[in-house]
Amino acid sequence: MFAFATIGIPIFGSFLTLAADRISAGLRNALAVLILLATFLSALLLIPIAGQASTITLGAFFIPGLHLTFVVDGLGVFVALTSSLIGLLILLYSLGYMKEYAHQGEYYFFVVLFLGSMMGLVLSANLLLIYIFWEMTAICSWRLIGFYREPQHLRSADTALLITVFGSFCMLIGLEMIWSETGTFAIDALRGQPISDLAIGLVMLGMLAKSAQIPLQIWLPAAGVAPSPVTALLHAAVLVVIGVFAFARIFVGVFGLSPTWQLVAQVLAIATILIAGGAAMVENNAKRILAYSTFGQLAYVFLGLATMNDVGVAGALAFLLAHSLAKAGLFLCIGIVEHQTHTRDIRELGGLIRTMPVTAITFALCALTIVGFPPTAGFFGKLMIVMGTAQSGNIPLAVLAVIGALMTLVYMARLFNAVFLGESRWQTREGTPIMLATVIAFAVLSLIAGFAITPLLNWVNALVVQLLTG
């Protein structure tokens, strides 16, 4: 029951926000918040049954192999909880950030539908059903990236759509090959079955496109033209997380990867880490710096998952949580800066810690998590990923992963220095109370994840055992 509520409340609720928008903005906003709060609470109620990996089937369509089958397991509930909590906080931030813009009814509709599509995807137990929700997120992200309707923004939205749909088209061909080779799309029936290298490569291409990994990363920095709450959703809660989740669900939990494919995935991850770090160190647009950071840090998650060992996979999931919380906070802090100064160019900023101390401090705390500074959860997650990579026998890749972490420290320090330190050039003030409360919440949650690392890792280790053993 709660599984259907977690999916149905935001999907059907998104249409209610459209109806409420015709009545009053206040009713629409309150309804959107209540819908995502109910989504988070229903996901929370799934925790007691997550350890049983319960599978629920509603029925079948005329398409062979397509059954409305959902699974409540550790991995799905972990990602659903993370995404719904972050989505709820971002929506609260939007109440202050978006109040001056037109087309707010459209904005809240697509944000709520976006989260609903994510809930459906992570709880699906059928590959074709996963793909349907996968495409729903593509449509939502396309419309949200082009929210301002300016030509440059529309081109960025179209670029994101074309690249991710190219990847999903390749993925669909791979899924059809899997059905042809096995006769089913059901995850339970597919577990442990061999599939062809071509099918693996095509499905993986779709995941790389969605999570903006090399060589399909160019759409993500361009998506920074969207409103800051949208970029926070894309980078922390929904879109890019989908590729990582699908990799864990399909390759770690169902098929496994041969040593050759594990090496290919790890090499691509390391290349993404280093290229993203190099680009971030020379970029001057604050949101693009964070965008480069996003696909670079998600590459650590891919690296850990590709090790296929307990340490690396557990580290990947712990770092995914840490990154999602901290990156949302970073984007929303920069959103406050942009909202107050109307610029993203770090060469035009500086000294904002004097007029925006709360934003500066919360930014610094979230940045420490991304860098992997002890005792944050980011530190433990990255450490376990590096250890898992070394344990898989790829010592040179583990060393390069450490170098990538040092590059993260350099560009994050450069960004903080350029925006908040130095000579004061702006007479501004902090964002609205609700915007500040949201970024503070993300900073606090990032710290809590680090201080509560023992219970967090116990939870993660339990779901890794469930994932690897089926």
Q: What spatial order of strands do you see in the largest sheet? A: 1-2
Taking all Cα atoms into account, the compactness measure Rg is 21 Å
The main pleated sheet reads as: 2 strands, antiparallel
- Element string (H = helix, E = strand): HHHEEHHHHHHHHHHHHHHHHH
Strand content: under 5%
Structural class designation: mainly alpha
Determine the fraction of residues in helical runs and give it as a percent range. Answer: over 70%
Shape type = globular
Instruction: Please give the number of β-strands.
Output: 2
What keyword list fits this structure?
20 helices; mainly alpha
Could you explain the architecture of this structure?
It is a single chain. The protein contains 20 helices and 2 strands. The radius of gyration is 21 Å and the shape is globular. The mean pLDDT is 86. Strands 1-2 form a two-stranded antiparallel ribbon. The chain has a domain of 214 residues. The two termini are 23 Å apart. The longest helix has 32 residues. Helices cover 76% and strands 3% of the residues. The chain is mostly helical and 470 residues long.
